[in-house]
C-alpha cells in the first residue's frame, strides 16, 4: 500500500533557456512550497557544477533558502558531493542549517564529482579524494555527533546537531558502505537503474544495526512524468528524453518544450540509450502511476520514494505533484 510510504522530491533546479537564474530559483521555491502544502516528506537538492540548465551548484545555500520559505517539509541535499568539500566546512554548514531549522535538515552524501573531470579538478585538485570517502563519512559523523572532549577539531556550529546522514549511490559501493555503517541508503534509479536490484539486496543483506537505525531504510529515486492521462504523460515525457539525449551528446541541459514525436531527433542507438537511462520512469495518469509504484514497492521493499519531476511548464510540474498524491490516495482506497 502506497499510503504507508512517504513521497519526497529530488530537484536539480532545472532552467529554461532564456530565463534568468532569479526567475528559475523563484519557480523552484514555489515548487517546494507546493510540495510542502501537499504533504511531501522531503525536498532535496542535488549538487551539480558547470552544467548550463542546472543551477543548484551552491547546494547548501539553496537548502537554507528553501527551508526558510517552507514550513514543514524536510529540506536537504541529494546530495553533497563530498570529494568537492572539506568535511569540516560541510559539518559547519549543515550544523548551522539544523540550528536554524531544527528537525528539518537532511545531509545526503555522494562520492561522485557532480561534473565532468575538468570541472572536478577545478573543484578539487586531488583526484583521489573519492577513495577516502568512507573515512570522510566517519569524520562527518563525528563532527556532527556528540561533543568529544578529546577532539582537537570541532564543528562549531555542528557538533551535537546529529544531522541525519544518508548515503547516495548508483553502484554497489555506497550500498555496501551504508550497510556497514548502519545508515539509510538512497539508490539513484532516476539516472542509473542498472545495479538497482543488486544494490538493494546487498544493502539489506549486509545491514548492521547502529545508533542511527535498527533496521535498513531504503529510499528509491525515480523519474516522474505524471499527467491527467497516460497519453498526455507520454507527450510531456519528451522533455526529459530531450534532456537525457543532450546529456549523452555533451550538450547544454536546458529544459525544452515537449514534442509530438522524438522521431528525427535521435538515432535508433540513442533512443535505446535514453530509454535505458529512463527505464524506471513512472509515467502516466493516476491509475498507471499507482500500479507501477505498487509493483516496485512490493518487489524491492521500498521504505520511501523520492522523485525527479522535470516538466517544461511550471503549472504542469506543480500539477504532477497533485496527480502523484492522487495516485497515493487511489492505492489507499483499493
Structure description:
This protein is of the alpha/beta class. It has a single domain, classed as TIM Barrel. It is built from twelve helices and nine strands. It starts with 6 loop residues before the first strand and ends with a helix. 45% of the residues are buried. Pfam families: Bac_luciferase. InterPro entries: Bact_Lucif_Oxidored (IPR050766), CmoO-like (IPR019949), Luciferase-like_dom (IPR011251), Luciferase-like_sf (IPR036661). To bacterial alkanal monooxygenase alpha and beta chains.
Write a brief caption for the model:
Keywords: Oxidoreductase. The chain is of the alpha/beta class and 334 residues long.
Overall helicity: 40-55%
The H-level CATH homologous superfamily, spelled out, is Luciferase-like domain
Largest sheet: 8 strands, parallel, barrel
Can you give the mean pLDDT? 94
What is the number of helices? 12
Task: Report the span from N to C terminus.
Answer: 9 Å
Strands across the major sheet, in which order? Answer: 1-2-3-4-5-6-7-9
3D shape? globular
Number of spatially distinct domains:
1
Query: What is the fold named in CATH at topology level?
Result: TIM Barrel
**Approximately how much beta-strand content do the residues carry?**
5-15%
Query: How many beta-strand elements?
Result: 9
CATH architecture: Alpha-Beta Barrel
- The run of helices and strands is EHEHEHEHHEHEHEHHHEHEH
The gyration radius over C-alpha positions equals: 19 Å
SSE arrangement:
Layout: E1 7-11, H1 21-38, E2 42-45, H2 59-69, E3 74-81, H3 87-100, E4 105-110, H4 117-123, H5 133-144, E5 165-169, H6 172-181, E6 185-187, H7 196-206, E7 218-226, H8 230-236, H9 238-248, H10 268-277, E8 282-284, H11 286-300, E9 304-308, H12 314-333
Parallel strand pairs: 1-2, 1-9, 2-3, 3-4, 4-5, 5-6, 6-7, 7-8, 7-9
Helix pairs in contact: 1-12, 3-5, 6-7, 9-10, 11-12
Amino acid at each position: 500500500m502506497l499510503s504507508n510510504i512517504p513521497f519526497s522530491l529530488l530537484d536539480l533546479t532545472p532552467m529554461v533557456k532564456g530565463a534568468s537564474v532569479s526567475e528559475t530559483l523563484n519557480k523552484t521555491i514555489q515548487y517546494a512550497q507546493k510540495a510542502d502544502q501537499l504533504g511531501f516528506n522531503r525536498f532535496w537538492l542535488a549538487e551539480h557544477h558547470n552544467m548550463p540548465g542546472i543551477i543548484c551548484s551552491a547546494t547548501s545555500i539553496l537548502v537554507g533558502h528553501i527551508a526558510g520559505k517552507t514550513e514543514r517539509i524536510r529540506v536537504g541535499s541529494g546530495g553533497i558531493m563530498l570529494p568537492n568539500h572539506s568535511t569540516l566546512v560541510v559539518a559547519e554548514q549543515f550544523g548551522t542549517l539544523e540550528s536554524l531549522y531544527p528537525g528539518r535538515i537532511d545531509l545526503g552524501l555522494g562520492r561522485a564529482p557532480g561534473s565532468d573531470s575538468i570541472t572536478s579538478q577545478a573543484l578539487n585538485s586531488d583526484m583521489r579524494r573519492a577513495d577516502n570517502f568512507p573515512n570522510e563519512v566517519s569524520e562527518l559523523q563525528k563532527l556532527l555527533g556528540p561533543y568529544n572532549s578529546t577532539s582537537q577539531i570541532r564543528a562549531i556550529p555542528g557538533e551535537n546537531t546529529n544531522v541525519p546522514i544518508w548515503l547516495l549511490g548508483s553502484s554497489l559501493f555506497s550500498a555496501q558502505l551504508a550497510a556497514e555503517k548502519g545508515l539509510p541508503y538512497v539508490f539513484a534509479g532516476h539516472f542509473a537503474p542498472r545495479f538497482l536490484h543488486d544494490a538493494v539486496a546487498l544493502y539489506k543483506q549486509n545491514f548492521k544495526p547502529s545508533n542511527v537505525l535498527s533496521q535498513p531504510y531504503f529510499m528509491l529515486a525515480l523519474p516522474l512524468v505524471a499527467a491527467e492521462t497516460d497519453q498526455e504523460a507520454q507527450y510531456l515525457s519528451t522533455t526529459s528524453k530531450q534532456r537525457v539525449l543532450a546529456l549523452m551528446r555533451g550538450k547544454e541541459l536546458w529544459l525544452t518544450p515537449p514534442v509530438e514525436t522524438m522521431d528525427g531527433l535521435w538515432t535508433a542507438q540513442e533512443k535505446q540509450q535514453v530509454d535505458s537511462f529512463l527505464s524506471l520512469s513512472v509515467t502516466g495518469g493516476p491509475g498507471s502511476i499507482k500500479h507501477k509504484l505498487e509493483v516496485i514497492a512490493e518487489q524491492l521493499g521500498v521504505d520511501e520514494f523520492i522523485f525527479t519531476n522535470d516538466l517544461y511548464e511550471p503549472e504542469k510540474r506543480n500539477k504532477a505533484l497533485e496527480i502523484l498524491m492522487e495516485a497515493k490516495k487511489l492505492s489507499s482506497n483499493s
